[in-house]
Every structure is written in structure tokens, then in C-alpha cells.
Amino acid sequence: MILDLFAGPGGWSRALAVLGARDIGLEWDEWACKTRAAAGQLTVRTDVALYPTWPWVGRTRGLIASPPCQAWSMAGKRLGLVDQPLVHEAVEDLAAGRDTRERLLAACRDERSLLAAEPMRYLHALNTVGEPEWVAMEEVPDVLPLWKQYAAVLRGWGFSVWTGILNAADYGVPQTRRRAILLASRVRTAQPPAPTHARVGEPDSLFGPGRVRWVSMAEALGWGATDRPVPTVCAGGGPGGGPEPFPSGSRKTLSDARERGTWTPRPDGVVLSSRRDGAGWAARHGTRENRSTTAPAPTFTAEAHRWSWSLRSNNQANATIRALSEPAGTLFFGHRANECTWVAEPSAGLEADTEVAPVPDPIRITAREAGILQTFPADYPWAGNKGQQFSQIGNAVPPLLAAHLLAPHLNVPLNPDDFALAA
């Protein structure tokens, strides 16, 4: 078997499925388990810290783990920073067969911090029978010192181990998501997969094919690969369903418009209606209140107006903002999930006297769009309300990155074309 600890909604599992393999995931979150079930993935809903290790001994070929990272993550409140020495102590003790978790947990500021030591409990039990054959683990970059501690233990048990930071964009993921990776094997030299993409495309050489350019959000979402794709956005609220975690004034979505047939990636025109109805706009076209609901929205041709769309990761002053012609920044969701929005600004090069429509309001990203930017298929069956879906997406490993990491362990070729994104 391939055992997947903290399996989440199935990033590793999706990669394995494309590669022709399956795992058994241990996961606690109810909605992640429902997503996994809908995707046809084997799952045990359980607390990884409480589940026994003996059912896996003598039966496990590979072990995968993406444990929670509250003691290291930049995304949260980082209350667990003081817990890092306790996590290192737990790993050391578990590697020696000493279970001191109860004592250490009582000293933790964040009860979740010690979960990062749980993979060592399973590894120690499996090592008694010479298992697993290989290990793959992934987390935020600041976890790298912990992975180095794991690596030292695994080398002592006969593994070849590599640890380091990889950028998902270098492997075809439309997102510059940097992650700390641990790869270990008993049967081959552990090393990172060769990058397939680069910020700037590279020509072929005598040493082999060059890397292609990073995949942009526009390409991944199927919105056209031009530098300035122009979506058509119509006003009005999106469909309901579940608690609405998004800020007031941003209920429209690009996908909502697309699904209603009012969205187009063609740069030959744009139809816009905005809440920011200025006096000049109202004088020419009427206000939202007095315009006929059956009348078409005002139209501006591409020669008169074109917007540049970007994705803003949150509403903080230092938020990452990336143009559609680039990969997204790291998608992380939690208390700021409601602020990941598409934002528009007038394109450069417009003449000063050009008549333009008011700037559209920010448009919230959808779970479908966010999932695609994580390289999940467009129809992936996310369960739960919007907040629960976004939480799953932000915590998942991108399946395409996972496939690059796993293919050598499975001794199977990886065809990136198998990871079709936008439908």
C-alpha cells in the first residue's frame, strides 16, 4: 500500500491516480473526506495522532505526508513558533521509539504543532520490518529544518534522502508556490525532479531540450494566452449556496459570468456594468436603479477601452498581485480566503482622451478557478460551502507537482498532458 498521512482533499491521491496507482488516505476534516469520497479515493476518517501504526506494518510500500504546519506557517498567527523546539524533541524521541507526545503536547502553545512529528511515529514502526521503500513529504518552506532532522534519521536507517525548496511553477503549475520537500528511497538515489519550466523560456541545446515558459493563469484557466485577455463581466450577484465568506461588494465572479454565457476571453471588446456609477456615466447611460433590466449594458470596443486583470491574494498592503499573463502567487486560504480577488486597471497605452468605463469592482475567485490554479481538474468535486472548499484547496499539494515527485518512486513516466485543467 501507499499510506498518505493528512491526506486532505486529494492532491497526492490525484497525482497517484494519473500515474496509475492508489493510496489510502488518513484524514480528519469532514469536508476533505467528503471531497475524497466523491473523487473515488480510499480514505479512513481519523485523527492521525490517535490511529495505530500496526495495521500498516508489513504492508506499506510508500509513505506520503503533508502535516499541518502551525508552528512554521507564515499564513496564520504563528502562535506555534515557540513550539518548534518541542516538535524537534518529539521527532527525536519518536525516532528512538520513545513516545513523549503527551508530555510535550501539554507544553505546546498550539495543540496542532506536534502533528508535524507524527510521520516519524509511523516511520519508526514501519522501519522495524524494512519499510517503507520510499517517502515523500511536503510543507511550507520554513519547515525545511524539520525535514533535515527527518533526513538525518532516515539516512541512519539506510535511506538516500534529499531535502530542499522547490517552486511549483518550475513544474508546470500556474502558481509560484514554494514548498519544502523531503524525498527518500531505499532503492534509488533520492534527488529532485528536473524542472520542466522556467520564468523565461529556454531554447534547446546540445545538452537537451530547453525549459518552456512558466504557465500563466490565463493559459491554465482557458482565458486566452494573450498578454491582456479581456473577460466580459456582467453585474449582479452570483449563485447562492452556503455561507458567503466574501467581502461586501464582490459577489460577482468571472466564472459566474462565463457560465451564464456573458464571458469571453476574446480581446475584441468588453461589456461592463459597475457599481461605481460616476456622474458622467449616469448621465450617458442612466443609473442601475433607473436602467431597464432588459436593456443591454453599455458596450465599449477594444479600441476605446481594455482592462488589465490581475489576481490579488488578499487585501493586505503587501498582498501579492499577479497579472493574468503570469502564474498566480501562492494560494493560501483561511482567515483571508474571502479576499483573493480579480482586480482590474486600465491597460497601459490608452490615449489620454480615450473614453473608458468605470473601473469594475473586485471579482472574487471561485473554488473552481482556485482549484485549477492548483492543477486540480475543472470538475473536481469539492465538498462543503465556499469557505470549506477554499480551506481544502489552499491546504492541498498541487497534483502536478506531486506527480513529478512521485513518478520516479513508482518507476512510471509522467505525461504532463494528463493534467488537463480548464474544460
Question: What descriptors fit this protein?
Answer:
single chain; 423 residues; alpha/beta; Rossmann fold; 7-stranded mixed β-sheet; 4-stranded antiparallel β-sheet; restriction system; DNA (cytosine-5-)-methyltransferase activity; SAM-dependent_MTases_sf; methyltransferase
Strand content: 15-25%
Assigned CATH class of the largest domain: Alpha Beta
Number of domains: 2
Largest sheet: 7 strands, mixed
The CATH topology of the largest domain is given as Rossmann fold
Explain the overall architecture.
25% of the residues lie in helices and 15% in strands. It has two domains: 222 residues, Rossmann fold (3-Layer(aba) Sandwich), CATH 3.40.50; 153 residues, no CATH class. The strands form four sheets. A seven-stranded mixed sheet has the order 3-2-1-4-5-7-6, sandwiched between helices. A four-stranded antiparallel sheet has the order 13-12-14-15, with no helix packed on it. By secondary structure, the chain is an alpha/beta fold. The two termini are 32 Å apart. The longest helix has 13 residues.
Condensed summary:
This protein is an alpha/beta fold. The chain contains 12 helices and 15 strands.
Q: Helices, strands, pairings?
A:
Blueprint: E1 2-5, H1 11-18, E2 24-27, H2 30-38, E3 42-45, E4 62-65, H3 84-95, H4 101-107, H5 118-127, E5 134-139, H6 144-156, E6 160-167, E7 178-185, E8 197-198, E9 212-213, H7 217-221, H8 254-259, E10 269-271, H9 279-285, E11 299-301, E12 307-312, E13 321-323, E14 341-346, E15 363-364, H10 367-373, H11 386-395, H12 399-410
Parallel strand pairs: 1-2, 1-4, 2-3, 4-5, 8-9
Antiparallel strand pairs: 5-7, 6-7, 10-11, 12-13, 12-14, 14-15
Helix pairs in contact: 1-12, 3-4, 3-6
